[in-house]
């Protein structure tokens, strides 16, 4: 019975503070929206793909064996590490006119490979999608130029170059996640304020709270005398 009353009282407390919770939720969402529009810089992404193929002298004519494919797939891990090495990034920075350092470029580049695939994906994020595409293509070109000398191979092809979309959309931040997170954060703040009010407020607002808290019947109440009546008697 006490558990039922406790759950009931919790819902009553939430009901009394519903306006507060709604207000803090809306304020949190609006704050996140303002931050999205004026404080957070949107980031755009450009991608290029590099294909690791079997060299002609190793493969023979139309005779690409499964073991050779597996060897190339294993080499993808080495190539992935090489893509973000100082040797490649220093060359990219030089080709881009010295506007970037190797460390700054590394923070913009993400390299990955598809499972059991000879394709390496290079993704670049930047405030300007055209600049992101320029960096991605520069990385692919430097990699295709330097890798044959470093690895003594001739099996690197640029499968797809990065291009600029007509109407690019930012990849981060996500408006839905940001505004939703702001709304949830605002609601949590509202709950904290509600709990503080309940814990530190020892006053009874009406007779129902007295009955619920003390568990005794209400015998009567004293009506509040309007102040205008008192003024008329003077």
UniProtKB/TrEMBL annotation:
Print the keywords alphabetically: Cell membrane, Kinase, Membrane, Transferase, Transmembrane, Transmembrane helix
Q: Where in the cell is it found?
A: Cell membrane
Residue ranges of coiled coil: none
One cellular component GO annotation, for this chain's record? plasma membrane
Question: Which segments cross the bilayer?
Answer: 18-40, 176-200
Q: Which family does it belong to?
A: Belongs to the CpsC/CapA family.
| Stated name of the protein | Modulator of YwqD protein tyrosine kinase activity
Lineage of the species this protein comes from:
Bacteria, Bacillati, Bacillota, Bacilli, Bacillales
